[in-house]
Structure formats: C-alpha cells, structure tokens
Amino acid sequence: MSQLLHQGWTVRPDGGPVPEHVLAAGPVPATVPGTVHTDLLASGLVPDPYLDDHERLLAWVGLTDWVYETTVVLGPVDGDRRSLVWHGLDTVATVRVDGHVVLEAADQHRTHVLDVTDVLGEGEHVVQVRFASAVRYADAQQQVLGSRPHVNDHPYNAVRKMACNFGWDWGPDLVTAGIWRPVELVDWSVARVAGVRPTTTLTADGGHLEVAVDLDLAPQALGVPGADGPEPDAPAVVRVSVAADHHLGQSAATRLEPGTSTVRLGLDVPGALPWWPRSHGEQPLSDLTVDVMVGDRVLSTWTGRVGFREVAWVSEPDDHGTSFRLVVNGEPVLVRGVNWIPDDAFPHRVDRARYAERLAQAVDAGCNLVRVWGGGTYEDDAFYAECDERGLLVWQDVLFACASYAEEEPLRSEVLAEVRDNAARLAHHPSLVLWCGGNENLWGFVDWDWEARLDGKTWGAGYVHDLLPALLAELDPARPYVPGSPFSPRGPGGEERHPNDPDHGAMHVWDVWNERDWTAFREHRPRFAAEFGWQGPPTWSTLVRAVSDDPLTPESPGMLVHQKAMEGQRKLERGLVPHLRVPDGMRDWHWAMSLNQARAVRTAVEHLRSLAPVCAGSVVWQLNDCWPVTSWAAVDGDGRAKPTLHALRHAHADRLVTVQPRDGGLAAVLVGDSAEPWEGTLVLRRLALDGTELARHEEPVAVAARSVLSVAVPAALATPQDPAGEVLVVDAPGARGWWTFVEDRDLALMVDGALTGTVERAPDGYTVRVEAAALVKDVALLVDVVDPDAVVDDGLLTLLPGERATFRVRCRELEDPEALLSPHVLRSVNQLVGRTVDRTAVP
C-alpha cells in the first residue's frame, strides 16, 4: 500500500537575512513537490523572480534556512514494514519525525528510503524537514574539501545540487530549497521492488529480455536465523511479465531466497519488434511488470515499458582520425540533436504536458536526439517516457559540469549513491542510448588553467575514468559510456589526446560564438559536434512580459539583467555587422538578432551535415530555456519557438540541399537521410534578383539511402557578373539550396512592395498567403506580436519573384486579422538591408 504525503505542508524561514514582512507572515502554505521560491510567490510575499531585476531582490532566499512541516494521521502498519520514500530533497536536509532525526541528506539527485516502521505507527505524527542554505553549505564545504576551479560565482561543485541553480551564462542565480519530488509512504511485507534494470537484445524471431530486480527485504519474513520464516508451501516469488499488442505475453519467475537483494531473470519474447529512433522506423513498446508474490497474493509491483533495441557508439581509427558514430540495431544513425537544460529554474513546475510540448518542438525541428546536459538534473521519468514514445534518443550526462570535483568523502559516497539511484531508475527506457561522464570537465582541466590551481588535488578524473565506468557496467551493462563531452579517445599507444581534438571523438565548438563570425563554423570539420550555437533574444511577447524597461533598448537595465553571457551584447553586435547593419529601432534590433541567430545555427548544421559520414552528428546548443532570457535556445523561456526552431527544421530535413565552399569553389551538397534513395535532376541556376536567368546547369543525380552526394558547381554558375545583384539557386526534387555572392547587407534587395499578402479565416486560426515581387529572403511571421499564444507552422522561407508561400497560424480570433501582414509581424531580410537601386547601367 502506498500513499503520497503531499498535503498540509507549511514552510517558514529559520535563520538568515529574512525581510521583516516575510518573518511577520509566519508559516505559509507549501506545495509538495515544490520549492521555497514558488511558495513565497504563491503567498504574495515576493515578486516574480523572472521579471525585470527581481532575481537580485530574491538573493536572500538562497542564504536562508527553511523549515517544512506537516502533521499526518496514520493507520496501523499494513504489513511487515513501513517505508518513507523521499524521491527528491533539495538539498541539505534534516528530516525529523516527532522531533527525532531520521535522515541527514545533502544530495538533490538522490532517492532516500527510510524504514519508519517503529516511528510512524498508528496515530498523529509531525514530519519536519529543515533545509540549510545551500549557498552557505557549498561555501563551507569548499573549505572542508579544498577550493577547486569552477565557472560562475558559487562553488556549486562542493555540493550535489543542480549546478545551474547557482546561475549560469543563460540562467538566473535562484538557489532553491524544498521537497522538489514526491514523498511517499509505503507499507509492505516480505520484499519490495526497489528498482528494475532490464536489458534487451534482438533475436532472429523477436527479442530477449534480461531483468535485474533490486529488492528491499523484510528479513524476518524471509527465514533469517532467529526470525519466523514464511510457510514452506508459500515461498516468496519474483515474477517478470512482458506483453504488447505485437507479441504474446511472456513471463518468468524465480523463488526469492533469504538474503537475496537482487534477482536476475531472462526470457525470450517471440514476435517482439525492434524499437527504432524516429525517421528510422517505429517505436513499439512492451509493458513490463515485476511482481513479488506469495502464493496468489501480490506483495509489490513495478510497471514500466521497454523497447527491444541494441545500441553502440563506434569509436575506431580511420583515415580521418577516430570516429564517434551511433549505431542502433546494427544501422548507423546520423545524429540531428539538441542540448537540453532544465526547462524551469524551478524544475518541479515541469510536468508531463510541458515535457510533451517541448519534446514535440524538438521533433518539429527534425531532431532525433536530446542531450541532457550535466549541469541540470536527471529528468523526471515522464521526460524519458515521452522520448521513448517519440523515438527521440537521449544522451544523459552524469551531473558534473564545467568544474573540478573532489573525490574524497563525503562527496564520493553521494556521487556513488545518486548514480546508483538514477541508473536503476532510467534503465528501462529504450530512448536512453549513452551515459556521459559530464560536461567540459576534461576540457577544463587541460585548457582552463586548472592543473596549476589544483596543485595535486583530486578533480574528478577518478570519477569519470574509474568509478563511473565500473558502476555503470554493473548496473547498466548494455548501454555505452564515455568519460565526458567533449572527449577524445586515447591513441593507439595509449597516449592521451586533447579532449577537444576535432579529429577524434566528440567536439565542442565555441570559438565561433566567443571570438569569430558565424561563417567560421565552416572551418570546423569535427567527427561529432556535441555543442555549438549562437545567441538571440526571446520572442517579442516573452521579452516585453519579462522586461518592463521604458524605453526598452538593447542595453536598457532589464535587457542586461536578462543577458547572462560574458560580453553577450557585444558578441551579438560583433556577430551581426558582417551580415546586416545594426538597426536603430528596438523592434528591428530584435528581428535582426533573432534572424542572425537562426542563420548562424542553420549555417553550422548544414555544414556539419554536409560532412557526413566523417562528421556523424551534431547537437545544437540549445533547445530550451529555463526563464525569459537572451540565449542560445531555439525555444524561449515561455515556451515560444524562436525563428531558430524554423531554421533547425529546414537544416534537419531528411532531404537537404546546401551550397558549401569547397576547394576554392562551390559545391551543391545533397544530404539524403532517409531509407529511400533520392534520384532526379539537379538544376542549378544563377539568377538576377528580379528572377532573370543568367546561367543554368542540369544533371541527373542519385543519392543512396542515408548518404551524401557532393556536386561541384560549374564555374559559369559560381562566378557572378554582378555579385550584389545575383543569387545561385540549386533545386533537387523536394529541396532547394541558396547561395549569395555577397553578404546580405550589400545585396540590392527590394523593400517597398517586395511582398504582398492576404489573410483568410481558418478553423483554428488563419491562413496567410504571401507573394514575392522580387527576391525576398527569410520570410517569417512573428505571430506572437499579435497574439502571445499564436503559433505558425513554418518560417524563414526565401522566395524568388512570383513565388508564393502559405503560412498556417493557430490562434484565437483576432480583432484585426490584417495585423498579421503588418511590418512588425511579416518579416524578411529585405526590411533590414534592402534598398531600391537602379541597376540597368551595370554591365
């Protein structure tokens, strides 16, 4: 029997720099799962920390100790044991029952199971959790463990807590405390299922399932010497059953012997179908049930879903260095990925519906993999379940990020326990295809001046090279592991390589954003790109909701609060001016920076995909945001798609035509990432901007399934007569690529009259049709300007003279539908760089 203990909680401060009005309020109602910040916000005691500069006003919360308390009335223990299960305590917690300490905890990422049979019996009880300030705890632990290098302001590496909770270059410094995941009271007898770790393989007629079942035991019920054992004719049994629509149910069972805390069972599953990543096949899932039974009585049950698949990451020497490529069910998978950060600075607010919305946006962007970054959390089961159903692969970092970590106690035991908890919790998800030892720690040790500062102290190498691979080989043996991201495997003689070597393993590309123009993405030729990106502001409606500056400018106070990157505004402008002039007006500045982000990311992804299979994948930084902020995200902190999401959809298309510089000229590269070959006629045209054809070339092409074909652009097409007035257009069946010979700021684009449009009512919104009178680049509808809840199906379409495009807008009924055609909504490059020029005199 299980019940959630989520009702009747209050929270109050218990020491720290607490404002008088909060002290005077006394205990306030607390939501469980929840956090102090959101409880104070719900009680009207603090402003919304996501707005303006309120983040700074709430810094005191993270420096304060907090007490959660509730009174529960319980019946007698129904069985041999009563367990109190804390699925997530954030973070430095002392749990008391009726004044007696039953737990001291200091790891946000762990599950704690307490035997409370003798302390939470029948009657009324007071349960209290005191959270010490994680900021002050981390500062103190840094002194105990020894100072170690880290990024940002706080020593987050001294405590096992979500690193970005202490602030990041896209996130707020809002250090939380609270019961952030469920708390559960469980009565049970004999044995309780504590974890289930399935491993699947494919066979000639279906699949095979090996299941490790971890158990909590009630020793007196299992014949331990000195205790009363079970009846001889009613032994405890562990039964595993698997069933799905596509195959008949199968089961296996074994007797539970005294003292056995892990039971292993195997069974063949004829008719089981393989689970595939999206765009490679279907995602059939089978229901898995594990029961502990005595006779016909079920004592404990675990249920989940599994998919039958096999996965490998192949890292082997070749003519280009050392590969890093994904293979699922024996078939290579070219990764089209995005990085995932916590979707809210207060993660308890992210429910399954929100996961579904965000991951649907990843699918809409053509992605097949999501990397869960090491500065966040091991996400809720709902996240991985959504990925299972959608065929979205998951790369899971162990939670180390951009820091060195002490390998001594008490940190070592916490790391060991949290990985045990989460490896067991997540093992049944077929979408999870990689464990990674953390983010940029190996790179930091080599390139960020850590070694001298550490002066011989441990820094995490023992975790990622020894503890984690051994532990995961025990708990999750069929799932691959790499020591970090970026990571380069050792050379043939065992020699160490630079961890961010582009020729070996997985690389992070950050010199472009930090130091260069985004066209420099094309200079990188990694074997796998696990991080790269470009910043842009949130959507307009998100921005003006979060920042109330008057006037609102690119560098007004609220804008700077919501820009966390070092020299972020300078880098935005530095990255814009080679391509577009910096606009004077705020709305045009917002559009220009949004567009520039989208084009930078599109350029990077198209280039990396054009290198396949040498480059076996790319993972864009980043899909989502945790609050309203200027950042690298494609979806902003309010969940709205930025233009970058449309850019990703086009760049991730199963069939892509992209024009790339090659060997001093240009090449039309056709990327066919589908199971079917791609055949037809490749048509290359050099056109004047008014559509006049100046040169043409056609040739038949055949792109094999899941392959890339590069076709040199003939000199007559690659050499313009008037660089500012011409464009190269490359068409293959179902896809088009573009190339201009000068930057957009120098193109002779038409502004006035370049686009005309109509708006028609549709059942769920409006249909907007536009037509181009001249070349119009990157046409987009910023529909949130008209309705913050509006969504448009496409964007960033380039049109030749006379071409039309149709946009479908889902939104409420508008008072003025023609607002969808206003110049602040219907956008293009032409508005930013165009000018009317008489080019008739140009020879």
Automatic annotation (TrEMBL):
- Superkingdom of the source? Bacteria
Region spans: Disordered: 482-502
Please give the InterPro entries that the UniProt record associates with this protein: Beta-gal/glucu_dom_sf (IPR036156), Beta-mannosidase-like_N2 (IPR054593), Beta-mannosidase_GH2 (IPR050887), Galactose-bd-like_sf (IPR008979), GH (IPR017853), Ig-like_fold (IPR013783)
The EC number of this protein is 3.2.1.25
One molecular function GO term is:
hydrolase activity
Broadest EC class assigned to this enzyme:
hydrolase
Biased composition (Basic and acidic residues) is annotated at 493-502
Q: Which UniProt keywords apply?
A: Glycosidase, Hydrolase
What reaction does this catalyse? Hydrolysis of terminal, non-reducing beta-D-mannose residues in beta-D-mannosides
| One Pfam match | Glyco_hydro_2_N2
Locate the Beta-mannosidase-like galactose-binding domain: which residues? 28-181
| Name this polypeptide is given | beta-mannosidase
Q: Which organism is it from?
A: Aquipuribacter hungaricus
- Lineage of the native species? Bacteria, Bacillati, Actinomycetota, Actinomycetes, Micrococcales
